[in-house]
Structures are given as structure tokens and as C-alpha cells.
């Protein structure tokens, strides 16, 4: 695999978008197997994996074992590897987890791709013998990846980064509210010390009623204890009781209700879906390399 794969800027694909979006493209191949690799990309990485799996297959072939045949079903939902007769799914590789795909230009039958396993999060390299269809399969996976990324953007992927920024702002607001509460507690402690000092220095035995003590701003300090209202009743009814602070809406240091970006109605994603969207965003952000060519993920960037 010593030739760098290049694509024209217009990305002329082999299949219609409908074929990959509403259906799938099937291919028959022989499955040499999969092996763990250290990196998600790299020609040398897949070259070593192919060499390793080919050697293992030669040993099994000498023992009389045949290379198993599989069916590949490629669509915007991933690359499925099935048993041809029973149609049992052996592997299901989602496109946002596929980071590298290459075909051997010296041996047009061999192609391979690297996919991050959904359970172990290890990078696995899958190797196939495709009867001289390697380049076509590689291009089909590339087209499916491109379409899947566009569908991801249309279905809410754009909101993921915005929600991350909102979550960061929410955390900052919570930190400010905590800091504000700590400052309030310190002010109350200082006011308490000031009142204690005023009581200890006042002359004893004076019967003159004292006016409420004031704080350092010459204001009457707030007391959480509700005073009995002296407002007279009107029409034989008692004025409505003053609500206790426990039932009041929590407000920030500016007197406004704290902003909660995740309590804004039907537009929110449940935590499991939000986590899935973030995982897909990270996968698409890494991009898919076709033998050295990285597809640009920014649809506004005309240079790619």
C-alpha cells in the first residue's frame, strides 16, 4: 500500500446518495480477520496489520482451513459484516468510528479499514480480500462517511458544541453563586461581631429603647426571623402572610433567577442521546482518511 490516494475537490462519487441513505451497497469478500493496532490512522499501521493477518492466514491455510467469505453492506449507518448465507451480523462498524480506509494498489484485491471498537474502545484493523474491488469499496465507504456526516449536521450535530459552551457557562454561574453565598456568610459574621462589640460597649442600666443596630453601610441588617406585622386588618381579613425564604425562588447576586440551559423544554436531548451525539461529533471531527486523503468536515470550507 505505497500509493497515496487522492481525490478531486468535487468528490465525484460512485453511487447516488439515495442508494446509501435509503438502502445499502452490498459487496462480497473474503475476511482475513481483524487485529488491534496502536494508532487510528497511518499507512504503516495498516501495512503491519495486513502483513500480520496474511501470515496468520497462510498458517491456517496450510492446516486446511479456508478463508471465510462475508458480505459487506455499506450505508450511511455503517459497514456491516455478515455471514453470506444466514445473514448473521458478525461486526457492525459505525462510520463515525472508522478513521482510516485503504486499498492496496499493488494487489487490487486487498483493502482494509481501522475502526474503534464500541465496547473496548480499542482500534481494530479489518482486512479483506475483495476480488479486485478494493478501490470501489474504499470509495463507497468514503462516500457513506461524507453523507453520514452531512446527515449528522442536519439532525442536530451542530447543537453539540453550542451545548458544551452553554454547560461551561452554567458551571461558571454556579461557581459565582457559590462565591456569592460565601461572601454573604462573611458579611453576616462581620455584622454579628459588630453587634456584639456595640452591646459590650453600651452603658449599663439605660432604659432608653435602642434603635436597631446598623451594619458598616449604616443599614439595618437583614434578619431571617419574620417580625410580626403591625398592619391592621382590613374588612375583617388578615393580610396575606409573608412567604418564608424557604419557598422563595433562588436568585443570583443580581436578583435574577439563575439561568438553566438544560431546563428549556422539548429541545433538550436526554443524557444518553447527548452522550451519543458527543461521541459522534468526536468521531467525525477526527475525519476519515482514504490512503492519505482527509475529507474536510467543514461544508463551508471550499478548499477541501
Entry summary:
With 304 residues, the protein is α+β, with helices and mostly antiparallel strands. It has 4 helices and 9 strands.
What does the model show?
A hairpin with a 2-residue loop joins strand 8 and strand 9. The two termini are about 25 Å apart. The longest helix has about 70 residues, at about 135-200. The protein has a 9-stranded mixed sheet, with helices on both faces. It is of the alpha+beta class and about 300 residues long. The protein is about 35% helix and about 20% strand. The radius of gyration is 34 Å and the shape is elongated.
Shape: elongated
Rg, nearest Å = 34 Å
Span between termini: 24 Å
Low-confidence stretches: 1-10, 226-231, 259-267, 292-304
Let me know the number of strands. 9
Number of helices: 4
Largest sheet: 9 strands, mixed
Key terms:
single chain; 304 residues; alpha+beta; 4 helices; 9 strands; disordered N terminus
List the helices and strands and how they pair.
Elements: H1 17-21, E1 25-37, H2 43-62, E2 69-75, E3 78-82, E4 89-93, E5 98-103, E6 110-116, E7 123-129, H3 134-201, H4 271-286, E8 289-290, E9 293-294
Parallel strand pairs: 5-8
Antiparallel strand pairs: 1-2, 1-7, 2-3, 3-4, 5-6, 6-7, 8-9
Amino acid at each position: 500500500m505505497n500509493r497515496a490516494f487522492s481525490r478531486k475537490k468535487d468528490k465525484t462519487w460512485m453511487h447516488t446518495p439515495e442508494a446509501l441513505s435509503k438502502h445499502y451497497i452490498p459487496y462480497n469478500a473474503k475476511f482475513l480477520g481483524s487485529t488491534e493496532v496502536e494508532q487510528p490512522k497511518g499507512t504503516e499501521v495498516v501495512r503491519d496489520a495486513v502483513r500480520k493477518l496474511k501470515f496468520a492466514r497462510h498458517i491456517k491455510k496450510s492446516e486446511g482451513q479456508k478463508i471465510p467469505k462475508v458480505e459487506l453492506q455499506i450505508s450511511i449507518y455503517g459497514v456491516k459484516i455478515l455471514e453470506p448465507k444466514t445473514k448473521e451480523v458478525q461486526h457492525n462498524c459505525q462510520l463515525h468510528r472508522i478513521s482510516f480506509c485503504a486499498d492496496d494498489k499493488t494487489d487490487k484485491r486487498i483493502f482494509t479499514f481501522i475502526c474503534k471498537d464500541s465496547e473496548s474502545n480499542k482500534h481494530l484493523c479489518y482486512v479483506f480480500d475483495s476480488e479486485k474491488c478494493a478501490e470501489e469499496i474504499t470509495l463507497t465507504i468514503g462516500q457513506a462517511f461524507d453523507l453520514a456526516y452531512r446527515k449528522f449536521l442536519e439532525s442536530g450535530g451542530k447543537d453539540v458544541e453550542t451545548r458544551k459552551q452553554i454547560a461551561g457557562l452554567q458551571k461558571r454561574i454556579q461557581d459565582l453563586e457559590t462565591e456569592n453565598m460565601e461572601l454573604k456568610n462573611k458579611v453576616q459574621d462581620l455584622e454579628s461581631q459588630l453587634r456584639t462589640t456595640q452591646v459590650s460597649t453600651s452603658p449599663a442600666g439605660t432604659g432608653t429603647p435602642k434603635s436597631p443596630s446598623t451594619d458598616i453601610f449604616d443599614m439595618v441588617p437583614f434578619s431571617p426571623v419574620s417580625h410580626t406585622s403591625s398592619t391592621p386588618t382590613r374588612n375583617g381579613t388578615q393580610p396575606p402572610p409573608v412567604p418564608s425564604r424557604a419557598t422563595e425562588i433562588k436568585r443570583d447576586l443580581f436578583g435574577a433567577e439563575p439561568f438553566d440551559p438544560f431546563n428549556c423544554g422539548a429541545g433538550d436531548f436526554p443524557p444518553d442521546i447527548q452522550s451519543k451525539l458527543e461521541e459522534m461529533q468526536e468521531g467525525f471531527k477526527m475525519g476519515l482518511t482514504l490512503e492519505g486523503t482527509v475529507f474536510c468536515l467543514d461544508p463551508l470550507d471550499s478548499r477541501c
